[in-house]
Design a protein that fits this description.
The complex is a heterotrimer.
Chain A: E1 3-10, H1 21-24, E2 30-36, E3 42-46, H2 56-60, E4 66-73
Antiparallel strand pairs in A: 1-4, 2-3
Chain B: E1 16-18, H1 36-51, E2 57-61, H2 69-72, E3 76-79, H3 85-95, E4 100-106, H4 107-113, H5 115-124, E5 129-134, H6 164-167, H7 173-178, E6 183-190, H8 194-210, E7 217-223, H9 227-230, H10 234-248, E8 252-256
Helix pairs in contact in B: 1-8, 4-5
Chain C: E1 3-8, H1 9-19, E2 24-27, H2 34-43, H3 45-48, E3 52-55, H4 59-70, E4 76-80, H5 82-87, H6 89-97, E5 102-108, H7 124-128, E6 139-141, H8 146-163, E7 166-172, H9 173-177, E8 179-184, H10 193-199, E9 215-216, H11 223-243, E10 247-250, E11 257-260, H12 263-278, E12 283-288, E13 290-292, H13 296-302, E14 308-312, H14 319-327, E15 332-336, H15 346-359
Parallel strand pairs in C: 2-3, 2-4, 4-5, 5-7, 6-7, 11-12, 11-14, 14-15
Antiparallel strand pairs in C: 1-8, 6-13, 10-12
Helix pairs in contact in C: 1-2, 1-8, 4-6, 12-15, 13-14
Classes of the chains: A mainly beta, B alpha/beta, C alpha/beta.
Amino acid sequence: MAKMKGQIVVDIERCKGCEVCIPACPEEVIAMSKQVNRKGYFFAQPVNDACTGCTNCAVVCPDGAITVYRKKMTE
Amino acid sequence: MAEAIVNTELIQPENLVYKRTELLTPNALSYCPGCGHGTAHRIIMEVIEEMGIQSETIGIAPVGCSVLAYDFMNIDMQQAAHGRAPALATAAKRLNPKKYVFTYQGDGDLAAIGTAETIHACNRGENIVIIFINNGIYGMTGGQMAPTTLPGMKSSTSPYGRDVAMMGNPLKITELVAQLPGTLYVTRQAVHTPVAVRKAKKAVRKAFENTKLNKGLSFIEIVSNCNSGWKMTPRKANDWMVENMFPFYPLGDIKVNE
Amino acid sequence: MKELRLMKGNEAFAEAAIRAGADGYFGYPITPQSEVMEYLMAEKPHERTGMIVLQAESEVAAINMVYGGAATGKRVMTSSSSPGISLKQEGISYLCGAELPCLIMNAVRGGPGLGTIQPSQSDYFQSTKGGGHGDYRLLVLAPASVQEMADFARLGFDLAFKYRNPVLVLSDGAIGQMMEKVYLDPQRPRFTDEEIKQNTPWATTGKTPDRERNIITSLALESAKMEQHNIALQAKYRQMEEEEVRYEKIGCDDAEYAFVAYGTSSRICQKAIQLAREQGIKVGLMRPITLFPFPKKIIAQMTSRVKGILVVEMSAGQMVEDVRLAVEGRVKVEHFGRFGGIIPSPVEVVEALKKQIIGG
């Protein structure tokens, strides 16, 4: 059965730590970092590999800080 | 414990499904964290990119938080005096009828000082797009009351809550302009969830395509948060918006190409 | 080949604008200049040249339409009268700050406030010292005849584009309403898209891949940038002062006294010169045609010949201050004027000259 496997890349300097991406993710992939970026914001990070590349987080991000990759995995 | 988990094998150009459009300039947005302006800017630029009309589009920026929209949108733009954007757009479009012309305005710009320009551009049925970001407050100047501030809502000039007896009710300008024959498409959208963003983007696309019909004005209100003005975190502001703003400003199409 | 017509000042201005290749007129009715828009609407210039004529919902909207159109590189214009010009001040400041060319006409009426509909010259300060905020100047042309109303429409557009600055034609209710012979220039074409790209490469015509995006704005939040911008604007105004001073002198060669007057007042003074000379008084007229840049050097030079200057203005005395500055106390300068839309008679002007300048 083919499954979508996704990977997000957060531009940590563009991220302002608003956290709006967190409830947008259906797979609970995103959590906030413990470190801050150069502007002093905590930034969003993918913290597990449950991402399906649905792009919800990227679509809702006000700063366009998220890039999404996705590949169809065949068993 | 937030340690980034990254599967570098997936990060290949052929797997790319979404990235920030290049029609946004590389500049960091000056908006507050979580502010709907950023999302609204992005969907507009995505539509312009997808339609291939960067060289045919003229945008008009307001006075308000988004006065610097021209630092972020990679198109030719004019910065308008407060409230006057629809007047600028009227002339720009009538003199350059083949171009796509849109205004991008906040609630003070469009529904306070610019009320006459808004109503009359709508009434004349200018073939432009008006994008109205309604967050019920004046963000840039420090959180004062707006025409769209809700009854009882606190702001720096309504510190005890908007008193309807003294200040009148919030102005539902979108419903007002929908009554004018000059408006072709009037809709109210939001950008706080992925579902809302995708719907809002479709509305923006429809509005831009409408300008080619020469049948009147397309008006999109985007109800947005203002976490700074409302003094909440972005997520709490979005929740508050759903609970309080949406019942007053219900989302959906008010008029579709009539 | 010029065409000779008998026309009202306001209408001559409108017709000349069409022939000057204007792209758009945006206006609002107000006495005594509504004929400009009425003429344009009746003429249907859209069929002649494609020119757009639109009645806006207010003078505020009209000046902002001018801004939006000018920002796309087009020849655009508006007209109004004193109270409406007050409404336009914000827009004018923005136009100057954003360096946009355009043509504005003010048919001055009595003020302040709603005032009267008869002619006046009480908007001199507003026109030349800025009625809007900030360090800006308008290039101000003061017609004294229907011919000049027509000529200054074309000249106004050309100077506006030369300097990327609004040009104000400061008329009044009398010049706008009077009918005189006027020679009209033939039609010249409106700008093509190519010409706009060439002549006004800064215009918002749509960002093509070969250039950066064009931004029309008057905002500069960093002070250093704002200062540089203002320095550049000032350089522009100094250049206007060097190159664009226009004036007319009548009967000044042997004059012992001089009138300084513009517009309708200058017409009265021409008759006053005749009457005065019949009484043996050698007086001449120095008529500024540009009010900014003001012909201060010319007036300063006159002080070596004349013993006194009477500034005749239909106001409480506004241009008289600029004359005094130019004269620097070397000779007597006095003001004579009437208010409320009353035009002084040549006899009154001669009496004022005798009483205020020669006598006293």
